[in-house]
Amino acid sequence: MPELIVHFHKPADWADTVYIHYWNSYPHAQGSAWPGVAMTAEADGWFSYRLVGVQSANLVFNDQHGAQTADLWRERSGYYANGQWHDSPSAAATSTVAAHQPPAREAAPTPSTRYPVTPTGNDFREETIYFLLTARFYEGDPSISFFCRDRLKFNRETGQPEDPHWRGDFKGLIQRLDYIRDLGFTAIWITPPVENRSGLDYHGYHAYDWTRIDPRLESPDATYQNLIDEAHQRGIKIIQDVVVNHLSLIHI
Fold this sequence. Notes:
By secondary structure, the chain is of the alpha+beta class. The protein folds into 2 domains: 97 residues, Immunoglobulins (Immunoglobulin-like, Sandwich), CATH 2.60.40.10; 130 residues, Glycosidases (TIM Barrel, Alpha-Beta Barrel). The strands form 4 sheets. A 5-stranded mixed β-sheet has the order 4-5-1-8-9, covered by helices on one side. A 4-stranded antiparallel β-sheet has the order 3-2-6-7, with no helix packed on it.
């Protein structure tokens, strides 16, 4: 019988208990309800969990208090530490030790030295455009995640709502700009960033106030202007979606 054993090294700023949420398992379809099941604590900050009858699965590690990894996939037993999978405990241990070393005192490379910034001009037919729904793309600031009042999804065991409609934000998008740039895109088309109001407004097309950026997208250190500046430093253009054909039922 196949068996998938995963080990996770808990970051210092996480809560004491680590959970594993898994789905799309193979060859036997299994899955957990969010936030998953508690992992077994081991020595030196390590946690483990054994998936019996599973050869591969999608999974997320989290602490049920807002800290979590990205969506992961694993097809063999392994060790996850500092954002990387390792096949052996020795390699994982080296990774955790390296993570605690003081950073080298070197000036961080500027975006212009990382990437060739080559503006393509004003003709958007020359751009390679990446479209995304900002509120669903990538969560950078869990404190501003928000549940819409319509179509709430509840956990059957706890009765609590899960998967906030407004999960992605500008901070998360800034964190993923390098990823989008490395894919070869030169422009990002985002959904309307203006303040929305309705029972299901995460998409941005129920505009309430055209003069204000929706606060569920901005953090103090990640405003709309910050996003634009960070994108431009990487040679990426931001395309703002503006739809005046329809608004929120209540609007300014």
